[in-house]
Each structure stands twice: as C-alpha cells, then as structure tokens.
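Please fill in the sequence for the structure shown.

STRUCTURE ENCODING:
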C-alpha cells in the first residue's frame, strides 16, 4: 500500500484497541482513514489493511468506531467482548439512544447485552422491522435465528457465547480466524490488558 501513513488515522477496531490500551492481536481486517486519496487495500499473510478516503471518517466516539468496525472490519466477538468490558455502559447506551432504530446500533446493543450479560438502561423497541444480526451472505449463520424482541434482531449466531466461534468470522477471513472469533477465544487472541501481560 503506497501512502503517507503519517496522514492516516486508525479507524474501527484499530482505533478502539489503541484508545483503550488493549494489548491485542489485530483483527484480520484493519482500517485507517486518509486525508487524501481513494480507497485502497492490500492483503498479506491473511491480513487485509484498508485505507479509506476522508469521507469515511466516523467521528471520535466509541460508538462511531464500533459501527465502523461492524461495517468494514467484520464482527469479531472476542474483540467486542474485550472492548465492552472497558467501555462505560452509559457511553454505549447514550450512543444507541442517539439512533435507536439504526441497524448497527441495534446489533451493537444486542451484542453488548449478549456478551456482557448486562442490561443497558434502554427501553425495549416496540416498532421497526426485525434485522438479522449477521448478514448470511457474509457470515456462517443459523436460520432463521432467534427472535430478540427487545432489540428487534434475529440472533443468527451459531450457538451461544461459548459455542459460536465461527459465527463471528466473515466467510472470506482465514480459516484460523474463523476458529477463534467467539468468546471462547477471548483469552487466547485478544485480551490481555497491558497491566496483566507480565503475569502471563
């Protein structure tokens, strides 16, 4: 990828990992936003790096970068679990409240409560079409999925938090990523906070 990296800003998972000080293996797809140039991507050893034009910059908020991550980096259940553990619940709830019927806001809402087993201070949705949590053309999913009335989402993950490793991996990601994307992988491929790294 030929670009002046000094003018690139991390986005999505890469932004959040840096912001929260996570010591983590990179997601299979990492993103940055450039002040100049068009979209360009390179793939090497199963890792794809994409640089997006300035118009893609999502803003500085955690919720904005979570949405960007789901759109462009893929659904990484392990990384999401680690990031949710480090993000104040009120921050997530306030962002969701700003766009309560948005499909990515609803997906993040469901995933937060599913992975953390904590309920956000938000009322149940009472209107709007149901959406699939994962897009079947991009992910390995179950059909038709469990109807989650609170978020108006069909949970089409393959199993629960422990038994759904491949659901969180895009079909075009490397096979070893597909086997380590669920919460079962949280310890092995994400999650080591800097202050614990010397103990492991």
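FILLED IN BY: designer on duty
SEQUENCE:
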């Amino acid at each position: 990828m030929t670009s002046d990296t000094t003018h690139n800003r991390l986005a999505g998972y890469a932004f959040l990992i840096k912001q929260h000080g996570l010591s983590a293996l990179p997601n299979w797809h990492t993103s940055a936003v450039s002040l100049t140039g068009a979209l360009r991507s390179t793939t090497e050893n199963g890792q794809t790096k994409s640089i997006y034009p300035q118009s893609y910059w999502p803003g500085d908020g955690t919720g904005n970068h979570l949405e960007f991550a789901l759109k462009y980096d893929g659904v990484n259940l392990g990384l999401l679990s680690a990031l949710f553990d480090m993000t104040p619940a009120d921050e997530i709830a306030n962002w969701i409240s700003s766009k309560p019927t948005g499909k990515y806001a609803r997906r993040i809402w469901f995933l937060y409560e599913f992975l953390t087993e904590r309920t956000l201070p938000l009322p149940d949705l009472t209107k709007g079409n149901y959406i699939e949590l994962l897009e079947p053309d991009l992910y390995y999913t179950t059909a038709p999925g469990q109807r989650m009335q609170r978020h108006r989402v069909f949970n089409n993950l393959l199993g629960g938090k422990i038994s759904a490793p491949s659901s969180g991996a895009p079909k075009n990601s490397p096979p070893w990523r597909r086997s380590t994307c669920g919460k079962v992988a949280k310890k092995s491929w994400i999650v080591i906070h800097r202050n614990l790294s010397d103990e492991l």
